[in-house]
Write a structure and sequence with these properties.
The chain is α+β, with helices and mostly antiparallel strands. Helices cover 24% and strands 31% of the residues. The protein has one domain (8-158): Cytidine Deaminase, domain 2 (3-Layer(aba) Sandwich), CATH 3.40.140.10. The mean pLDDT is 92.
Amino acid sequence: MVSSADSFRLSWLGWWRLVGQLRRRGRGIRESGAFLLGHRHSGPGVVTDFVFYDEIDPDALSRGHVHLSGQALGKVWDRCGVRGLEVLADVHTHPGSAGQSDSDRAYPMIAIKGHTALIIPAFARSATNLRGVGVYRHLGAGNWISLPSPKAGWRGITF
């Protein structure tokens, strides 16, 4: 079961910005992605910043699927340290559905037990289809669980 300490929220404006950037960066022909940064106090985390994969690794999207160099993650940790944030989740797009691929399961962006990964279908063509978004929690050792779809509320979207 997912506790409120494991969940996080993203404002509606933030969601629209995120999906728009993922769609633009993937150009409807390739996957794109980002790390969602924010903070946790008591209760759910709050996303306040994004780090797009192609910002930290210019070749991240050149293969048609997401691939980050090891050096790119160092840039994420540096940004978190400077701004006092943490990685709350990662997100990437898929051409079709939001199901995890074999490589998604085998090679998580953050291979830490409890990390959350989001997959937005159809190369992020729609910001309104929240039921289509895949939400997955890493259990360690290549194991994952699928979580419920994001929940829309007046303060934003809770994952």
